[in-house]
Every structure is written in C-alpha cells, then in structure tokens.
Specification:
By secondary structure, this protein is an alpha+beta fold. The chain folds into five domains: 45-172, Alpha-Beta Complex (Topoisomerase II, domain 5); 257-333, Gyrase A, domain 2, CATH 3.30.1360; 361-487, Orthogonal Bundle (Topoisomerase, domain 3); 510-608, no CATH class; 613-624 and 653-740, no CATH class. The protein contains 21 helices and 34 strands. Strands 18, 19, 20, 23 and 24 form a five-stranded mixed β-sheet that branches. It has a four-stranded mixed β-sheet with strand order 14-9-8-17. Strand 4 and strand 5 (165-167) form a beta hairpin. Helix 3 (53-64) packs across helix 4 (75-82), helix 8 runs antiparallel to helix 19 (469-487) and helix 13 (355-393) runs antiparallel to helix 18. The chain is elongated, with a radius of gyration of 41 Å.
Length: 740
C-alpha cells in the first residue's frame, strides 16, 4: 500500500513536470519574439522621420512646453516632463537629450540649443554635467520638425498610461533620416546611418521629386558622400560609395586633418573621423612610443580648448612629420572606417534600403503629411467660408436680424429663428448669434465679407493641389528649396580620391639596418648585427646541430620558414631581436607557435612575393618540383600558409630560385650526392604536386638528408658530382669532405 502511494506521488510529480514543460519553438514564439519586436520597433531602429521613439518623445515634450520660443530652462525640468511619455528613467532621457544638443557636437544640425557642459562626441571620458546644472531649449531648426503637427499631419496615439497623446511620427519637412546620424543595436539587427549634407540631400530629393527614375549615378553626383559634424576626410572610392548608396551596406575609410607647425616642431590634429575618440588615439600612440615604433615623437597631449578640437604630437629634432603621420594613420584611429547599415522602419516594418530608396520612402511619407495638412486647411477654410456666407446673408437686413434676436423669448430659440428667417445652417446661425453687440454694424460686417473671395480662391487652389500630384510635389520642392537656403551649410567633411592616398608600408614601423640571418638544422634562428657577424666569435650550437641557411640582408624584409608539415610561416625580420653568435638564438617552432611536432626544414628571406620567381622543393624520397611564387599570392599578408607543397614525403630542403637558375647540391644518407642546376627540375602548376624523381633511391631504402645552395663550402671536389640530367643515382661521396 505504501509502495503504491509513493508510486502515485511520483507519477503525479512527473505529470506536473510534463505539464509545465514548454517547447523551445513555443518559448521563442510567445516569449522571445514579442521582446525582439519591441526592441526593434520601439527602441533601437529609427523610423522614416529619422527619429527613434526616445528622440521623438523628448522633442515633442519640449515643443509642448513652448521651448521653440522664449528662454532656455533647466534640463532637469525637461527630463521630468518627458517622463510623461517615456517611462524609462531620467538618466536614459538625459543621455538622449545630450546627443541632440549643440554642445555635444554629434549632429550637423543640432535640434537643441544648449548652455552648459554636454560632453563631446569625439571623447569617451569628457563627461556631461548633471541635468540640474545645464539649460536648453529647442533650436530654430526644429520649426521644420513640427510644421503641420497641429494640422493633423500625423497620427497620434495615447501615451503609456493613457493620460495624454503623442505623435507616432514627426512631420519633418526634409529627409532627416539621412541628415542626422543614427546608431542602434536591436535584436538580430542593427542600424548605422551616417549623416549627409542637408543642402545636398535637399537637392537629391528635389531631383527625385521631379524625376522618380533619376539614376543612382546622378544621385551620386548630387549627394557626393556622407558629411560629418567633426569634419575630417573621406578616402573616396566612387564604386565603393555607389555600392553603399545602392544596398545600404558597406564601409568607407576616413582620416584626420592635420597641420605641421614648423615653429614649434609639432603636428596638430585638427579633425578626427566620426567613429574615433581622442582617448583611443592617445592610448595607442603612447603604446607605440613605449614600444619604440614611434621614436620620432617626444610627447602626445590633448590640446582641446575654447577654439575647438586639437591633439598635438611634439616631435623630436630632425623628425620627419610625413613619416610620423604615415605611422599614425596606419596604427591608430586617426584613420578609421565607418560601417554603414541602413536599417530603418517603414510603417512598422524593418527594411534595409539604399539612399535612393530611403529618399523615395520619405517622399511617400511627406506626400501623405502634406495631403493631410492641406485637407485640414481645406476643412477650416470651408468652415470659415460657410460662416462668412451666413454673415453676408444678414447684410440684406441687419435690423431684421436684431429684431429677431430681441423679440425671441427663449435663448434656445435664437439660433432656430435666425436660421429660418435667413435660410442659414445651424453653424451659420450660431456664428451670427455670437457676434458682439459692438460689431453689429455695416462696416464690420462688410470687412469680414470681403474675405469671402480670397477664401474661395484659396479653397480652389487647395482642391486643385490635392487633385494634382505634380502640384503637391511642387509644394514639397518649394519647402525643400527654402530649407536649403535657410539652413544649408558647406560640406565639413572633405573628399580625398583613393588614388591620392598611398597605402602605408608595414616596414615604416621598423628601423632598418644591415644584419646576418642564420638558421640551424635544429630550428634555431639568429639575427646578428654587422659587428657580431664580423666578429671571430664561434657560433653556439646544440650537439650535432649545424647551419643550413645563412644570408646577409637588412631588417626590412620577411623570412619564410618551411616545415616538415607542408606549411610555410611568414615572419618579419624585425620580429626577431639581435643576438650574438655565442647565443643559441630563437627556437623557431616556439617563436612562431607552430603545430605540435612541427619542425623547420629551411628558410629564405624575401622582400615580397614576386610572380616569376620560384621555390624549389626536394623531398626525402628523392622527388622535387619548382613552384611559381604567384601560387602564394594573397590579398592580405598571411602569417601561415597551409598546403604549401606536397606532404607525400617529408621535405628535405627548400631553395629560393629567384629569376635565375641556381646550382644546388643534394645528398642522400646512402653516401651519394649530386650537383645540378634548378632549371633541370620541372615547374608544376599545382603547388602540392608530388614532383618528379631527381635522385634515384634504392627501393624502400635511404632518403635525401641534405639540400643546399652553399656549394662553395662543400669542397672543390663537389664539382665531380655534377649531373646534366635527371633522374640520377648520384656520385659516391667518399672522397668529398663537407665543412658543415
């Protein structure tokens, strides 16, 4: 009985557990998706008016507070009032407000005229003052945001607690979506919209209004490129910009503006890219100075003052300012990229659009707003005309109208009696009945009636505009032309053609000097100075180790290391420290983080990958091949190349042929050797080909154990091993003495 009871309890718990389980698909649909859509629609992605909900709520609150005119008021007051529409806390509201101010310098056309410290867009650490200290009001530019908002231009919805209403969108009279920059991260998507010059945007929109089929190339001619409040320069690539305009996705490079002040021997950075910060630039520059990569700079300092942005690099005597700037552009955010991702909301739907598509969507939105404004004005004018026509009717007999009002016993009968006597509508009779006694004179009534003709003309014009799409668009064009004339400014961000900007070479960070490179069979690599190389000091090796590669070169090139795993590792000569011959040197597999049990077979110093030059590979099975260096070309500098040559047999040696054949000596562990020219070895189109037989090996016995180009060190009798054709069994080496 007790067992049965326990089992029943267990079954009940299992049933309850099953009942409370929820499929992951159901969880995503019911719990996650509403959250994701809320973030996308209500927080992070801007709508066609160019605003996120937080921006719109703040600006509309300020508009209702009457801050489009009058004096500035404390920011704390504005923040408090905004909480009627935005319940997310005063801190987030104030942060939103900061970005829209003139003082923060984040916008080409700020919406808020500010007083006090609001931080700076180009600084992460320059904090804004508390809201109780700062003051603000709407900038005059905001007239273009709220024009028509009181004329039913946009829809209104209740706020979060149904105590008031707020606009769904602002009826912006210009394409603010492309004039004000916008960054936002939602769930599963993000937006990054750069700012464009207002005058250019107005011209581009006008072109589309006149001809909806305006080509993208024409748009590119009008709206040349993005424009940022911080200025700087865009490294302009028309095809790259065209792709951004077409798809809404892409990136472009920006670089800072600077000047060299010869008198003070310093470089002043005057403008930096919009996506850079002064702190990150200073931090990186300081690190470079400590690492010895920026030896020409004595100090870097923040020189921002009342005149604006300035970052100063004090140079050492005889420093080359052009070289310093090349280094800074290459390694710091003085040159930076802006990533574009034009995701916007159109009627509640997220869309990724290009510039032309965004402008077309804004035109549709603006046409609706203007149509609603005109419809609102039409209704008001028709109502006013109706009242004035009623007023005109009493001109026939003012005394009769007065007599009717005077002789009517009950107040509620005045309107019906007037309506019946003069054939007026109820609204007309109400209007006549409400006229003050002092205004019941012929002069007043005649003056009012004279407005009738003007009203009729206005009504006819509005109706004609509403009927004619071309006239409606002409109204928008006229508004855009006025905005351009009133608020348009010259471009702040200059354009520099891509061809004018030379790509910096990586070796500009390293001091150049002559040196000797040495690699041993055991995988130890040494970089010796000229003095150390000339010294008679003996090399230090592990027991049984010896030199397999030695070359005099300089510190600017790269070293290719060839391994027994068919991989090539590429490192800069400058990555290795100078050492003495008496030191062991760097153990290459550890230095370059090679794979486990991977060993170096050979190396070669090069300056660049040159097509037409060849690598010669000889494997332990006696086979070999030549590979054109173009097989190793890549868009970026690769540290590691896998599958660089055949892995069927271990690599015995790798020789860089260059553009001329070289003599190489091949030795087997069977005591035979051969001296051949590399031109005898055929070139293969596939770098992983197994090659052809060079040295005949006994069946299943022996292997090639040495391949070298250091013929002069083998002894004079090595020439007896010369072969003019391959394959060959080689010559017995009993009479040849090797010096290594």
């Amino acid at each position: 009985m007790a067992k049965k009871k326990k089992q029943d309890v267990k079954d009940l718990k299992q049933n309850e557990s099953v009942a409370t389980r929820q499929l992951i698909t159901e969880t995503l649909e019911k719990n996650y998706m509403p959250y994701a859509m809320s973030v996308i629609i209500s927080r992070a992605i801007p709508e066609i008016d160019g605003f996120k909900p937080s921006h719109r709520k703040l600006l509309y609150t300020m508009y209702k507070m009457g801050l489009l005119k009058g004096q500035k008021i404390k920011s704390a007051n504005i923040v408090g009032q905004t909480m009627q529409l935005n319940p997310h806390g005063d801190a987030s509201i104030y942060e939103t407000m900061v970005r829209l101010t003139r003082g923060h310098e984040a916008l080409l056309h700020p919406f808020i005229d500010s007083k006090g410290s609001f931080g700076k867009q180009y600084s992460r650490d320059m904090a804004y003052a508390a809201s109780r200290y700062t003051e603000a009001k709407l900038d005059a530019f905001c007239n273009e945001l709220f024009s028509g908002i009181d004329k039913d231009a946009v829809d209104f919805v209740p706020n979060y607690d149904n105590t008031t209403n707020e606009p769904v969108l602002l009826p912006t009279t210009f394409p603010n979506i492309l004039v004000s920059p916008n960054l936002g991260i939602a769930v599963g998507m993000a937006c990054s919209i750069c700012s464009f010059n207002l005058a250019e945007i107005c011209d581009g929109t006008i072109a589309l209004l006149k001809n909806p089929n305006t080509s993208l190339d024409r748009i590119l001619d009008i709206i040349k490129a993005p424009d940022f409040p911080g200025g700087a320069e865009i490294i302009y690539d028309r095809e790259q910009m065209r792709k951004i305009y077409e798809t809404g996705v892409g990136s472009f490079k920006m670089r800072s503006k600077y000047e060299y002040v010869k008198k003070d021997n310093c470089i002043d950075i005057l403008e930096i890219p919009y996506s850079s910060s002064i702190e990150s630039i200073m931090k990186k520059a300081t690190e470079m100075i400590k690492q010895g990569k920026l030896r020409e700079v004595a100090d870097v300092r923040d020189a921002i003052d009342l005149n604006g942005f300035k970052l100063t690099f004090d140079l050492k005597k005889d420093a080359n300012p052009d070289l310093v700037m090349k280094k800074l552009f290459a390694a710091t955010e003085l040159e930076n990229s802006f990533d574009c991702n034009f995701n916007i909301l159109v009627e509640g739907t997220p869309m990724q659009l290009g510039v032309r598509e965004i402008l077309n969507e804004w035109i549709k939105f603006r046409v609706k707003c203007v149509r609603r404004e005109l419809t609102f004005d039409l209704g008001n004018k028709e109502h006013k005309l109706e009242l004035l026509l009623g007023l005109a009717a009493i001109l026939l007999d003012i005394d009769a109208a007065i007599k009717i009002i005077r002789n009517t016993e009950k107040e509620e009968d005045v309107v019906p009696n007037l309506s019946a006597a003069f054939h007026l509508t109820k609204a007309q009779a109400e209007y006549v009945a409400e006229i003050k006694l002092r205004n019941i004179n012929r002069e007043y009534i005649l003056n009012r009636v004279q407005e009738i003709e003007a009203l009729k003309k206005d009504i006819a014009d509005i109706k004609e505009t509403l009927r004619d799409e071309i006239k409606l668009k002409q109204t928008i064009i006229a508004t855009l032309q006025t905005i351009k004339k009133t608020y348009g400014k010259p471009r702040k961000t200059a354009l520099v053609e891509k061809t004018e900007v030379a790509a910096p070479k990586e070796d500009i960070f390293f001091e150049n000097y002559n040196c000797r490179l040495v690699l041993t069979k055991g995988g130890y690599f040494k970089k010796l100075s000229v003095q150390a190389a000339r010294a008679s000091e003996a090399h230090k090796f592990k027991e049984g180790d010896f030199i397999i590669y030695e070359e005099d070169t300089d510190n600017k090139g790269d070293v290719l290391f060839f391994t027994d795993k068919a991989q090539i590792y590429r490192a800069r000569v400058a990555d290795f420290d100078l050492c003495k011959a008496s030191n062991m040197g760097d153990y290459v597999p550890m230095k370059l983080s090679m794979d486990e049990d991977e060993h170096v077979v050979g190396c070669k110093m090069i300056y660049d990958i040159v097509p037409g030059h060849h690598m010669v590979y000889v494997f332990e099975n006696g086979k070999g091949l030549r590979v054109d260096m173009k097989s190793y070309e890549a868009k970026s500098r690769r540290r590691k190349i896998t599958g660089a040559y055949s892995s069927e047999s271990p690599l015995a040696g790798a020789i860089y042929e260059g553009d001329k054949p070289k003599p190489i000596f091949i030795k087997s562990d069977g005591g035979k050797g051969m001296l051949i020219k590399t031109s005898l070895i055929p070139e293969k189109a596939t770098r992983t080909a197994s090659g052809v037989q060079i040295m005949q090996m006994p069946r299943n016995k022996g292997k090639v154990e040495l391949v070298t180009e250091r013929i002069d060190e083998l002894g004079e009798e090595a020439t007896k091993c010369r072969k003019l054709a391959i394959p060959s069994t080689g010559v017995a080496l009993s009479q040849i003495t090797f010096k290594f």
